[in-house]
Amino acid sequence: DAKTTQPNSMESNEEEPVHLPCNHSTISGTDYIHWYRQLPSQGPEYVIHGLTSNVNNRMASLAIAEDRKSSTLILHRATLRDAAVYYCILRGVTSGTYKYIFGTGTRLKVLA
Amino acid sequence: GAVVSQHPSWVICKSGTSVKIECRSLDFQATTMFWYRQFPKQSLMLMATSNEGSKATYEQGVEKDKFLINHASLTLSTLTVTSAHPEDSSFYICSARDMQGARNEKLFFGSGTQLSVL
């Protein structure tokens, strides 16, 4: 299973943009890049996903490197509610079944 | 839309007893569901992949006789922790894929079950 590497923690000031990096140098051509976030004592929440092109949605943007070996989740204006652990995941396929393997995640702290 | 309901939210049991955790997709059909466990301040560890109507696929190191998974319908998967011991205490989280349309890449998660074995 391909793995992801993320910084353990990051800090951001409220209402400033946040760039959360993820390295996935062993990504295969068919792996999708997913991001989820988790608040304490809750299940993770979907944020965004992509394959090759950059993606935008109402929550965030995903910038994918041309060689696909890294990606960056961009929160355009961090709020206190964005404080969470952010997981970068590669969605692969094993024996015809989708597989989502979580990395260690980045704990984002947002300062008021 | 795309709600996954997981029950119970927390359970305390005595060592040696069995505990069943339910995971339901409320507004979509989930051919595939996933079970994870999470220890404090750690990431989620995939335990098994559950496909409707067939046997679950367990990750390496996960005891299939210990963690029984049943996925009898397109909206329900259960995880039974058999003969629970204190080391089984953990946060268990289920997730499901919506097979239809544009949501089929996304995972939707339950709110988790905190199991404490005394």
Question: What this model shows, in words?
Answer:
The complex is a heterodimer of chains A (112) and B (118). Helices cover 0% and strands 53% of the residues of chain A. Chain A is mainly β and 112 residues long. In chain A, the strands form 2 sheets. In chain A, strands 1, 3, 4, 8, 9 and 10 form a 6-stranded mixed β-sheet that branches. Chain A has a 4-stranded antiparallel β-sheet with strand order 2-7-6-5, with no helix packed on it. The model of chain A has no long low-confidence stretch (mean pLDDT 93). Helices cover 0% and strands 52% of the residues of chain B. Chain B contains no helices and 11 strands. Chain B has strands spanning 4-7, 10-13, 19-25, 32-38, 44-51, 57-58, 67-73, 76-81, 90-97, 107-109, 113-117. In chain B, the strands form 2 sheets. In chain B, strands 2, 4, 5, 6, 9, 10 and 11 form a 7-stranded mixed β-sheet that branches. Chain B is globular and about 45 Å long. The N and C termini of chain B lie far apart (37 Å). Chain A binds chain B through residues 32, 34, 36, 41-46, 49, 87, 91, 95, 97-105, and chain B through 4, 6, 32, 34, 36, 43-46, 49, 51, 57, 91, 93-95, 97, 105-112, 114.
**Beta-strand level of the residues of chain A, as a percent range?**
over 45%
Counting DSSP E segments of at least 2 residues, the number of strands of chain B comes to 11
Q: Figure out the total of helices of chain A.
A: 0
Provide the gyration radius of chain A in Å: 14 Å
Strand portion of chain B, in percent? over 45%
Percent helix range of chain B: under 10%
Q: Could you tell me the number of beta strands of chain A?
A: 10
Weakly predicted, low-confidence segments of chain B: none
Q: What is the ordering of alpha helices and beta strands of chain B?
A: EEEEEEEEEEE
Radius of gyration of chain B: 14 Å
Largest sheet of chain B: 7 strands, mixed
Based on CA inertia axes, which overall geometry of chain A fits? Answer: globular
